From TrEMBL:
This is Autophagy protein 5. It is found in: Preautophagosomal structure membrane. Forms a conjugate with ATG12. Part of the minor complex composed of 4 sets of ATG12-ATG5 and ATG16L1 (400 kDa); this complex interacts with ATG3 leading to disruption of ATG7 interaction and promotion of ATG8-like proteins lipidation. Forms an 800-kDa complex composed of ATG12-ATG5 and ATG16L2. The ATG12-ATG5 conjugate interacts with RAB33A; this interaction is bridged by ATG16L1 and promotes ATG12-ATG5-ATG16L1 complex recruitment to phagophores. Interacts with TECPR1; the interaction is direct and does not take place when ATG16L1 is associated with the ATG5-ATG12 conjugate. Conjugated with ATG12. It comes from Bos mutus grunniens. Transmembrane segments: none annotated. The lineage of its organism: Eukaryota, Metazoa, Chordata, Craniata, Vertebrata. GO terms for molecular function: Atg8-family ligase activity.
Length: 321
């Protein structure tokens, strides 16, 4: 990971265009204009909103200003969650810019922790780093660092300095092969459909038989609901030519596959639309909406509006892939 600098930079410099709007019930001396920022996904709201505070405080009386907090569509935004996590949990399907509402009063005590200073954010961040290193390296790496290294790590995040941050963070990400790598993979899975704030369990990077685990393996074990089940192939309408569904089990060889499709494809697509309109209620029949031939990839790709998760490919020799 430490060598994939282009990937690391792309992740680090990920930005979310955001529009901050003052809550309508806040008292102002004149109209408060919205304020726009590009928020770094890897940072925290309370680290990057000083300009937001200054912008809105200019139109407010000092006595009407208390601790600032933010909400999105009625949900208070937790300052100890990274910005990218908040956006993905609450607003990933909404149009950009991300519209955040700014409050200076009525702090939601039951929903949010107070954040009186950046020292609190630093303490939270370093606590997470130490927890992760305890799982990966038995805390050996973080404990061998000097205090100035901890400070450099934090200041790199706070000031959005990639090189400053990764000069220290690379030590925490080293994967010692001679020690079979990390002891456990530190992770948290956040979900919007559960009362649990997140899922966190012990998970080794390598299986008992020596095979490297994948992200899919982790999800199947700790969050199986996040993995889409295999969808059984429904009955295929009789209008679909048999050569398009040929299987390698019989060793099929159909040299005219592409020529036949080029001649019949448009007609069959139109016929599929007509068959859909004439389908009897309650029948389980799959209609292919799009069948695309590709000489460069030697496959036919079939896509269905009825079952968008099904994407079937048939090879040049009729092999189902």
């Amino acid at each position: 990971m430490t060598d994939d600098k282009d990937v690391l930079r792309d992740v680090w410099f990920g930005r979310i265009p955001t529009c901050f709007t003052l809550y309508q019930d806040e008292i102002t001396e004149r109209e408060a204009e919205p304020y726009y920022l590009l928020l770094p996904r890897v940072s925290y709201l309370t680290l990057v909103t000083d300009k937001v505070k200054k912008h809105f405080q200019k139109v407010m009386r000092q006595e009407d200003i208390s601790e600032i907090w933010f909400e999105y569509e009625g949900t208070p935004l937790k300052w100890h969650y990274p910005i990218g996590l908040l956006f993905d949990l609450l607003a990933s399907s909404s149009a950009l810019p991300w519209n955040i509402t700014v409050h200076f009063k009525s702090f939601p005590e039951k929903d949010l922790l107070h954040c009186p200073s950046k020292d609190v954010i630093e303490a939270h961040f370093m606590s997470c780093v130490k927890e992760a290193d305890a799982l990966k390296h038995k805390s050996q790496v973080i404990n061998e660092m000097q205090k100035k290294d901890h400070k450099q790590l934090w200041m790199g995040l706070q000031n959005d300095r990639f090189d400053q941050f990764w000069a220290i963070n690379r030590k925490l990400m080293e994967y010692p092969a001679e020690e079979n790598g990390f002891r456990y993979i530190p992770f948290r899975i956040y979900q919007t459909t559960t009362e649990r704030p997140f899922i966190q369990k012990l998970f080794r990077p390598v299986s008992t038989d020596g095979q490297l685990h994948t992200l899919g393996d982790l999800l199947k074990e700790v969050c199986p609901s996040a993995v889409a089940p295999e969808v059984p192939m429904p009955e295929v309408c009789s209008w679909l030519p048999t050569w398009l569904l040929a299987s390698s089990a019989e060793g099929s060889h159909l040299p005219s596959l592409w020529r036949d499709w080029e001649e019949d494809g448009p007609r069959l697509s139109q016929q599929g639309a007509e068959n859909r309109r004439n389908q009897s209620p309650g029948t389980e029949t799959l209609f292919w909406d799009q069948v695309v031939a590709s000489d460069t990839e030697n496959v036919l790709c079939l896509n269905s509006r009825d079952h968008p998760q099904i994407h079937r490919m048939v090879g040049r020799s009729g092999v189902g892939l």
